[in-house]
Amino acid sequence: MSAFQNVILQHAQQYPESGIQDFIKLAFQAEFGPGHLAANPEKSRMMLKREMETCVENDDPLYVSIGNGLCRVSLWQWKKHGYSVEKLSELFLRTAGEKRGSMRGFLGRLEELRGVCDEIGMDEAEIDLYLARNHGRDLQPHHSERYRQRYHPSYRVVLQAALKAELRNTAG
Fold first, then answer.
1. d(CA 157, CA 12)
2. Which of 52, 94, 122, 123 has the fewest CB atoms in 10 Å of its CB?
3. Total tally of structural domains belonging to the chain
């Protein structure tokens, strides 16, 4: 079993209401990082501040690994711990500038997803349906409505090593 397949299984356990679209989003983020959200750094900072003000209380850990050296940082937990919004914005923008990814890598992650579909109760044909529906368009997936209603996702994708270093600096 690959490292990314382990990530998928962990997410399936932590977020059992996830649909195939949510796992495709996970694969996309693990491959490409957050670059698509950071084209305009100032707008990105403003969006983060606004989202930080409206994020919903949750039981998520501070961060969860999504593979490829990346993690999702819970905005609620970041806020709850009193960490700086500016610092999270800086980590996010740094990550967006460093992570690239490729279509080949993304398709490889989808193959890894196919390999565990039975274990997570998904039909691998749904991956093909998603790709067919989005052929020739932006493949950037969004969370499913069910996932959004159940988990109220509010996070930023950052380099896990940079986050850990920041947390050590903050604690020390």
1. 18
2. 123
3. 1
